Amino acid sequence: MPVTQIESIAKLRDHVGREVAVSDWLEVSQERINQFAEATEDRQWIHTDLERAARESPFKETIAHGFLTLSLLSALGQRAMSVGGVRMGINYGLNRVRFISPVPAGSRIRGRFTLSALADINDGVQVTWKVTVEREGGDKPSCIAEWLVRYYE
Hints:
Layout: E1 4-6, H1 9-12, E2 19-22, E3 26-28, H2 30-40, H3 45-48, H4 50-56, H5 66-71, H6 73-80, E4 81-83, E5 88-99, E6 107-121, E7 124-135, E8 143-152
Parallel strand pairs: 1-4
Antiparallel strand pairs: 2-6, 3-6, 5-8, 6-7, 7-8
């Protein structure tokens, strides 16, 4: 998918209430899951032990950490859209997050970005993105999040 180009922060206002962009697919490999487990010290077997997961997990395979899926919002956003005139973007936090369905190792995910709200702040805007993370071939979203981002001019 091509990256959605938004000319400026001011032009973001035209997109409130609409889906703005959909990212390309991103693979969530076992290697990525293992690296995340090491970085966060969350080495639970359901994420890292292929044999045990095959035997004991209800999913019968390893799955990505929910927080790994959530941490990929920035990467998915960069693959989906670009806002011109932004000097700096800051991850301001999250209002609501739900992990609806698992992301098995080797799956591909993508993000759908809907601009829910936009408010002026000093030297920029604060936006609320409703992000739906879909898994290729999945029947339900993997994650739904309200993501707050501040864009500074």
